[in-house]
Structure formats: structure tokens, C-alpha cells
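Sorry to interrupt, but I need a hand with the structure work. Can you supply me with one protein entry, sequence and fold together? No commentary is needed, just the two lines. Leave the record below and I will have a look.
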Amino acid sequence: QVQLVESGGGLVQAGGSLRLSCAASGNIFNINAMGWYRQAPGKQRELVATMTSRGSTNYADSAKGRFTISRDNAKNTVYLQMNSLKPEDTAVYYCKYSQSVFGLEYDRWGQGTQVTVSS
């Protein structure tokens, strides 16, 4: 199966930028989509941005115009560029791949990376 490792999180002031990376390894095949999700303390995990295998993207309303999801197929890496960060963006950010194996779809998650935005 696919193993995912996120990096790039940290502490940033409001208005600043961060770029998260998600490096994939292992059996990287039949990937239908990849995406970024986040979970703030006391809240449910929520979608931030996704990209299908064909490159179609989808963003949460809170991310539109500020965040950009992209990928580098040669490096098996997905990125999330985050600009104009706000304190409410503070959360643990997770990368997810949706993989088909023998007709069944599985979600593969990374361990998460903390993003903290100070006001």
C-alpha cells in the first residue's frame, strides 16, 4: 500500500505563507485522487483541497483563492501552497490518497503536520 509523509508545517504569523508537502512511497498505483484535510482541536476533520488523477481540483470555500494544491508526479509528491494564512487555519493537516485495490477503494493517510497561525 501507499505510505504518506507530510512535511512543511510550522508556526507562521497571520498573512504569511507555508507550503506543505506529502511524499508518497510504496505501491503507488491506481490512485484515484489525492487531497489535503485538516483537523483543528475539538473539531472534525475537514476537506481543504483535492485533486483527481486527471488533475481536476476542488477546494473548500475557506481555501478558495488562498490555497493551491499541486503535484509533482516525478517526485510522487503533492503540495499545498497556503497564502494569506489566518489564525483559523490552525490545525493538523493530513494528506490522503484514495487507492483502488482489486476493485475496492482505500483511503491512505499520512501522520499529519501541525500548522499554527498566530494573530
